Amino acid sequence: MAARFKHLAIMAAAGAGTIALIGQSVAPRAEALAMQAQAITAQEKRQGAEVHPKLLEEFGGAYQVPQTSYVVQVGKGIAVQSGLGNARDDFTVTLLNSPVNNAFAIPGGYVYVTRQLMALMNDEAELAGVLGHEVGHVAARHSEKRQKAAQRNSIIGLLGQIGAAVLLGDGAAGQIGQQIFGTGSQLLTLKYSRKQEEEADDLGVRYLSQAGYDPQALSSMLASLAAQQAIDVRSQGGDARSVPEWASTHPDPARRVSRAATVAQRFSGSTRNRDVFLSRLDGLLYGDDPKQGVVQGRQFLHPELGLKFAVPQGFAMQNGTSAVTINGQSAQAQFTLGQYSGDLSRYVDQAFAGLGSSNQRINYGQMQRTTVNGIPAAYATARVNANRQLVDVTVFAYAFANNRAYHFVALTPAGRADAFAPMFQSVQRLAGAEAAQIRPRRVRVVTVARGDTVQRLAARMAYDDLKVERFLALNGLSGNAALAPGQKVKLVTY
């Protein structure tokens, strides 16, 4: 969380896509789609250019590091195989500074991959395969069909059990849902159909082969992702973060591995470029960027802003560029900042005003003033009707030094606003000594020495739990893998 949170309702309109669940049969239409690919239109170029800067803001911004030019080179090389453009410069490829495992593409020739997902890859062909799949969605114009579906069924899962009743329409709750949580990819409930996913996978494999890569690369990448997803699920208690975005919105990558491998048998190609990829990967930031705050267990700590808070048991956090999103089965919240003039009551009022529509203001109850861990605070709750379901919306704000203020916006079922009471009371200043201990993790590529074992190398991983499992998933290795002297492997260290 590095800047003021801006409400984004962009991914559904842009048709951005992430890899999703596929079936077990080969989609024959993919071959026809590859032969009939249509060039990017002027309208798609305008649409992509409008959405691109908003996506950068939502996903941590473009990551300008030595690895960036390499990712751009590989991405353009695979994207041009799609027929969407005849020149590499028809595409804009971006490495995102995000700790979320994600990749997507939008109409207009814009292709994205996060540094976190790149770190999970083990060769250049896997990078090309991931980006090829996403370009395949755009080449098949899947986003147009999904956008039409969104217009017919604009439902966002805001509150778990009652989420299906919260429609993004003209009602107050719909406005709140859209403006607090947007329809960005992190909470987008719409998915591509199984048929569309099969087509995108088949196209991605085809693009790999056309570029000379090993077409099995998409399958091996999916296997690593499945292993990482299992680790994230197991470590929920120790690292209260939702499962990787690439998996959470489109679950079960394990079921896709065998199908992608079967499809790849129809194609040729052998290039993997493992050594080149690992040399470029070395030193890449892994996990949270301390400049944007970090998630540790159920705590969020921001050394630059000098604050921290904790979420209740059973809730997961997702840290974004400008807000922290808190998700639970029956409630959700976001923590962000706003313009502060020194009047905390006015600050809360402005936060509610920002949640309403231009012609419908949210009426909240009595403003309450309090102190939380020595920090002046104010809060209020509004009850709104969401399609015959009552929802409580709470704004809880805190005044810090240097004329700064931050606040939670929380949505809960009516009468359940106290579900976040422990979180509201947990906000406190982050001491300098504690802030100084927050260090970034990085990917380091090391050469296996004689006598090195999986266990010995895994012990160097910068984690307190599941070290062996993390090492195996990071390197795409099976549980009985044997290491050979001279082999290059990845570690995550401080």
General description of the model:
The longest helix has 18 residues. The protein has three domains: 239 residues, no CATH class; 147 residues, Protein Transport Mog1p, Chain A; 53 residues, LysM domain (Membrane-bound Lytic Murein Transglycosylase D, Chain A, Roll), CATH 3.10.350. The strands form four sheets. The chain has a seven-stranded antiparallel β-sheet with strand order 8-9-10-14-13-12-11, covered by helices on one side. Strand 5 and strand 6 form a beta hairpin. Helix 6 packs across helix 10, helix 10 packs antiparallel against helix 12 and helix 10 runs antiparallel to helix 18. It starts with 10 loop residues before the first helix and ends with a strand. The N terminus is likely disordered. The chain is globular. It has 494 residues and is of the alpha+beta class. The protein has 18 helices and 17 strands.
How is the largest sheet built, in terms of strand order? 8-9-10-14-13-12-11
Q: What does the overall shape look like?
A: globular
Helix/strand-derived category reads: alpha+beta
Fraction of residues in H or I helices: 25-40%
From the structure provided, what is the oligomeric state, counting identical versus distinct chains? Answer: single chain
Outline the secondary-structure elements:
Layout: H1 11-14, H2 29-35, H3 42-58, H4 67-79, E1 92-96, E2 103-106, E3 110-114, H5 115-120, H6 124-139, H7 142-152, H8 172-181, H9 194-210, H10 217-234, H11 245-248, H12 257-264, H13 274-281, E4 285-286, E5 294-296, E6 299-302, E7 307-310, E8 316-319, E9 324-327, E10 332-337, H14 344-355, E11 368-372, E12 375-386, E13 389-400, E14 404-413, H15 421-424, E15 428-429, H16 432-436, E16 441-447, H17 454-458, H18 467-474, E17 488-493
Parallel strand pairs: 1-3
Antiparallel strand pairs: 2-3, 4-16, 5-6, 6-7, 7-15, 8-9, 9-10, 10-14, 11-12, 12-13, 13-14, 16-17
Helix pairs in contact: 2-9, 4-6, 6-9, 6-10, 10-12, 10-18
